[in-house]
Each structure stands twice: as structure tokens, then as C-alpha cells.
Amino acid sequence: MEKPALEVQLQTLPNSPGVYQYYDKNGKILYVGKAKNLKKRVTSYFTKRHDSHRIGVMVKKIHEIKHIVVASETDALLLENNLIKKHQPRFNVMLKDDKTYPWICIKNERFPRVFPTRKLIKDGSEYYGPFTSFKTVNTLLDLIKGLYKLRTCNYDLAEDKIRQGKYKVCLEYHLGNCEGPCEAKQAEEDYNRNIEAIRQIVKGNFKDSLQQFRNQMKRHAENMEFEDAQRIKDKITVLENYQSKSTVVNPKINNVDVFSITSDEGYGYVNFLQISHGAIIRSHTIEMKKKLDETDQELLELAIPEIRQRFSSNSKEIYLPFKIEFAEDVKVTVPKLGDKKKIVELSLRNAKYYRQERFKQMKIVDPDRHVNRVMAQMKEDLRLSVEPRHIECFDNSNIQGTNPVAACVVFKNGKPSKKDYRKFNIKTVEGPNDFASMEEVVFRRYRRLLNEGEELPQLIIVDGGKGQLSSGVKALETLGLRGKIAIIGIAKRLEEIFYPGDSIPLYLDKKSESLKIIQQLRNEAHRFGITFHRNKRSKTALNTELESIAGIGEKTVVELLKHFRSVKRVKEASKESLSEVVGASKAGIIYNHYKSET
């Protein structure tokens, strides 16, 4: 597939959070931005006037749009920061400096300190975050300080130095904010227990702490201290919205390449995420045409060396969704759970979005090609001898056998052809008998097409299981069409597809386009049939009693119901009031009819 035009790209963007990147005609990055809804945000650049001259100039230069889909707005914010710092786009003003988002550090030392920082130092310390605002960091640190007494000094509290009495307690000890480990007033085991509890808090496990805050808020409210209660409420809100884990920034994952693949019958779509120092700095998806029906493993084995060479990647480890044969001296990891698994899932999500967008773009740019591909796929999936360019689907509707009707909907080239839809009143069947009704309507439909010399469908679908299918087959046999038209049944419960003479149903992939078209046909037949049935039932319920009067026709009934609103009021009306609506002659007939009943 060729690269789609900008207008087509805009139409097919996802309604998901993520980061978008604008490129000029030379492939140079112009701008990186974040969005809660990628489609709405990116489209806004092209549909409104810009007050800023800088943005107006940039929009004129945009030649291509790329995007990365992420799980949340927070991840979009962090990924935007990574990409701006990496690529330094010309039209970005903010976030180009070396200032990054804050982290909470638990220092790798005896009696560890807990403090906020913007720098990650590889000294064995633990870093939690990053956080998109210092407000969240300060709320967490306030919570920690309120629950646990920790040191704030930067002394080297080695055991021998404490024993030698090198340090004295400071003001924090006298204020009750520290237990004085510098003078051995607090045991290391006791301090480390507090640090373990703090780890749980910064990971997001602070159920007990939230409950303590709620109790404090309640006490303040009971004591009419509403300002204090509001302050506690604000802290609770921050903690409830807090996310300790980010998929796009993780200091535990260093320099790694992540690959994933999704595919269809003709193409494979391989996504590449490049991670440097724990942050995603690149996402790129390529499309690979299948030549010999290659497996996903084979396509991935071909794609990885090509992508790594294109982006000059020297990472010594790659994450994959499954094992492959890889000749280079690189560690291959297939994550099963945790942060590594999430990053592979993020890569796969982007590959799937790319595939969906390419389908949408193909529908817009080359609809015939899309139809040809879908028809070829249906032929293969349903084991047909020809492509089902003309499909007809039947559905019965009745309530306890009353007002039995049937519907036939027609799809041509995978799209509804509403002018060819047909409705049937069941004529030969008494009572609720779906099988006999199905036989009647299939017989009547194709007897008429044969008599009128109309074209026959390549595929017939009946809504129901083996019974309805057998009835349809019987009707075709009577007409001498058995074997000339393919016929299948679809059962609602498990979306089973039945074939004549085969007791074992076919199960199509729930995501396959073949099943989606069959479901669309079935649902459209049901909708069309049930609408016809309701109209017929309503008309019968309203009109039967009045129309049964000799000499009273449909138009008269409509006039009466318009005026009197119900059959009951017509019954109770005087001859004079009836005469005003339908004239003296018909009024006399109606009045005498109901008079004779009493």
C-alpha cells in the first residue's frame, strides 16, 4: 500500500489517548504533542484558524502524521516529554530543556532517605514515578511523613561512625519528626520496616492510609473545621487518582528493543518500540506483504534485522511476544507478566491500531480493492466455490404463531442492497412452525427469481440452526437448485455456522471480517423482519374490529381513529357525533352494528 494522503490519515486516526508527531516533506519532525483523543486533537489543527503565527506556519508544512497510542493521559504526557527531549522538534517550545518529571527516590544507603528528585542516578537507589505534577509527589511525601518518622539529614550513617558518636541529633529529633538513628536511638530493623511500608504506599497500595485520611476528615467536619476537612479531602482526591506505574517510563527497563506483530491474510504489521534509559523514544510500524503465506514468526524474523539496521539500534536485548530464531548476539526475552509484559502489549496495541487504520484508508482510497479482498476472504473462510458477491439472508418473525412473517435481506459486494429487500406473509403454515415457514419463503423467493429470469445469489444464509437449514435445503431441492447455490445456517448462541449434511459446525474467528458480514446480514434480516411484524401486528390490533363491519373500509377507520383516538370511544359515540366525522350513512351502519351487539 502507498502512503495515504494527509486528508485520509485524518479520517482514520483513533479516538484514543496518545502522542502525535508531525513531519515535513523531507521526513523531518516538526512537532510532538499529546492528546486525550488523538482524532479530535489532530483534526483541530486543520479545521480552525490559529491565532499563533508559529502554529499556522507549522500546519502548512505538515506532510505526514504519525502517532503512538497509549493506555492513559498520564502516559501520553510522559511519552510527549520523552520524544521532545529526544528529537528536539522545531515547533515545540516547552519541554526541550533537560528538566524532567519528578520521581520519589528511596536512597540506596543505611537508614534510607525518601525525597523527590528530577535526576535518576544509577547507584542502586529505588525510583518511583515519574509523576506529572509535584502536587502528587508532595501529597505522597506528606502522607509518608505523617505516618512514619524518617531522617532528612544526609549523614553517612555507617555502623562504625554511629558507634564512635560522630553525629548528634538535630532539631528534627526534638520536634518529633525523627527517631534519632544517628545516635542509635532507633534500630535499623525498625527503620527498614517503615521503609517497606513506604514502598507499598508509593506503589499505590495505601488503602489503610486513605482510611486514616477519611477518619481525619470526618473528625474535622464534626468539629466544624471545614477548611482543614477540605485540605484532607484534596489529599484523598490526589491519592485516589494516583497511578504509580507508567508503561512508557520505567527505570527498571534499560536499553531494549520491543517488537510485536499482528497479521491478516495478505499482510503482517510489525511494531517497534525503542527504549533508552527506561523511556520510550521511538515507535515505528511497518507493513510486510506476504508472498508465500508466511507465519508471524517468519515475518518477525525478517523484520527485526531490517528495522534495527534502519534505526541503527545496538540494544543487546529484545522483548518479543513469542520465541523466534535470531542469529545475532542478542538476548531474546518473552515476558510473561509485569512491566515487561505491559510494554509488549503496548507495542501490540499500536500494531493493531496501524492495521485498522490501513483498512480504513484502503476503503476510502481504493474501495474496489477492499471489496475484492473481503470477498476472496469469505470464499476461503466459508469454503465456497465462488466469491459470494450476492448474498441473501432469511429470518422468521412471529409471536406464538400470530401474524407470522419472514424477511429476506440482500447484500451485494458486502453492502446492503435495500431496494432488493423483500417481505413475506406466511400463507401455508398454521401455528408457530419456524421450519415450515422457512421452507415456504425460500421456495417462494427462488421460484419467483427463476420465473422472472433474475440472477440468483451465490450464498443463502438462514437465521437458525440445523432445522431451519434443512428446511431451506428442502425448498432448494424442490426447485432443482440444490448444489447450484451454497446455503448455510447461523445459530445465535455461539455463532455456529452449519452446512447441509454436516453435523459439526464451523466456528469462524470472532474478529474475522467474514463473520462480521454474516452477523451484519443476520442482524439486518432480524431488524427488517421484526419491523414488518410489528407494523402488521399493530395494524391488525387496531383495525380488525372496525374493518370487520360490512361497508366500512380502511379510510373510514383511519378517520374514526384520528377523531375518537380509540375503538372503545367509537363504540360509545352517539350517531350524531359519528355523522360529523364519516357522514350519516356510515354513521348509521357503525351505530347499528354496535347497538345490535348489546
From TrEMBL:
Cellular compartment(s): Cytoplasm
Residue ranges occupied by any GIY-YIG domain in the UniProt entry: 15-93
Keyword rRNA-binding on entry: no
Entry keyword set: Cytoplasm, DNA damage, DNA excision, DNA repair, Excision nuclease, SOS response
Chief site of localization: cytoplasm
Signal peptide feature range: none
Classification via InterPro entries: GIY-YIG_endonuc, GIY-YIG_endonuc_sf, GIY-YIG_UvrC_Cho, RuvA_2-like, UVR_dom, UVR_dom_sf, UvrABC_protein_C, UvrC
Annotated ranges, domain UvrC family homology region profile: 272-471
SUPFAM superfamilies: C-terminal UvrC-binding domain of UvrB, GIY-YIG endonuclease, RuvA domain 2-like
Family that this chain belongs to: Belongs to the UvrC family.
HAMAP family, per the entry: UvrC
Chain's role: The UvrABC repair system catalyzes the recognition and processing of DNA lesions. UvrC both incises the 5' and 3' sides of the lesion. The N-terminal half is responsible for the 3' incision and the C-terminal half is responsible for the 5' incision.
Protein name: UvrABC system protein C
